[in-house]
């Protein structure tokens, strides 16, 4: 059984967000999937198998952190589409059946992949107790996405503040259903990105996720409303970073990025 490690939302190895990818004939039991994800020990490991022709989707897709299954994951979907395309197992747009619905992934002529995800709803909420202390930074605004991805989108003052955060992960754990996304406008948009972000998800076993595709289904509408543009580019990460291009299309958000395969081997269990 082949297992791949793919760096997503980057065009070079050892950047972006690494994901494990296993293509299967069918899903084994959940306990086995979780044990494999724990062994891989990346923020997410994706498991996919082909579906019968003629249905609404081509592949079934699931994602596991080292501790739990998640409802939506962007970077591991990108990694899975990259593996399927590289193996010559599909042409045109891939359709994945996942917990969050049907997701599309289209290989572009420039080598990137564009994914079609549901747009997250944003609801402004008061600053939760302990959030400022947990982040160690003043908060400009907070929006809740609990009906969709289960994150808090937390606006901070500037890019430097986002980059310099050293949050208390234990304190963040109970502040949202899934995690906390901090964001700010780019200090210098001429560098090629419009906003920055970082994602902290200790509640699902990930203190910090380098580049979170699903978070951009909330960041895209948030910053599109501020900038008055539907097409934006986000840079996410602390020590390890990646680039996500977003295009807001009403209730759908297109996420575009590169992916690079870095490791391939045999899973002997």
From TrEMBL:
The keyword Isomerase applies. InterPro entries: Phenazine_PhzF-like. Keywords: Isomerase. Gene3D superfamilies: Diaminopimelate Epimerase, Chain A, domain 1. Belongs to the PhzF family. This is PhzF family phenazine biosynthesis protein. The lineage of its organism: Bacteria, Bacillati, Actinomycetota, Actinomycetes, Kitasatosporales.
């Amino acid at each position: 059984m082949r297992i791949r490690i793919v760096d997503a939302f980057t065009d070079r190895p050892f950047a972006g967000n690494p994901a494990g990818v296993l293509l299967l004939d069918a899903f084994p039991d959940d306990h086995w999937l979780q044990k494999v994800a724990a062994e891989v020990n990346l923020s997410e490991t994706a498991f996919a198998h082909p579906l019968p022709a003629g249905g609404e989707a081509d592949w079934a897709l699931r994602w596991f952190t080292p501790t739990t299954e998640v409802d939506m994951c962007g970077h591991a979907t990108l990694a899975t589409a990259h593996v399927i395309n590289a193996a010559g197992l599909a042409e045109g747009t891939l359709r994945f059946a996942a917990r969050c619905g049907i997701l599309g992934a289209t290989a572009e002529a420039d080598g990137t992949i564009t994914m079609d995800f549901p747009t997250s709803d944003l609801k402004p909420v008061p600053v939760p107790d302990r959030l400022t202390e947990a982040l160690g930074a003043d908060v400009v605004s907070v929006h809740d996405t609990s009906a969709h991805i289960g994150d808090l989108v937390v606006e901070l003052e500037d890019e430097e503040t986002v980059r310099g955060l050293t949050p208390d992960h234990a304190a963040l754990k109970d502040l949202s259903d899934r995690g906390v996304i901090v964001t700010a406008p780019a200090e210098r948009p001429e560098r090629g990105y419009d906003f920055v972000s970082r994602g902290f998800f200790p509640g699902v076993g990930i203190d910090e996720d380098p580049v979170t595709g699903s978070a951009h289904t909330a960041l895209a509408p948030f910053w599109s409303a501020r900038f008055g543009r539907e097409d934006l580019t986000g840079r996410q990460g602390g020590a390890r970073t990646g680039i996500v291009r977003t295009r807001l299309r009403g209730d759908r958000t297109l996420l575009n990025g590169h992916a690079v395969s870095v490791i391939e081997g045999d899973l002997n269990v």
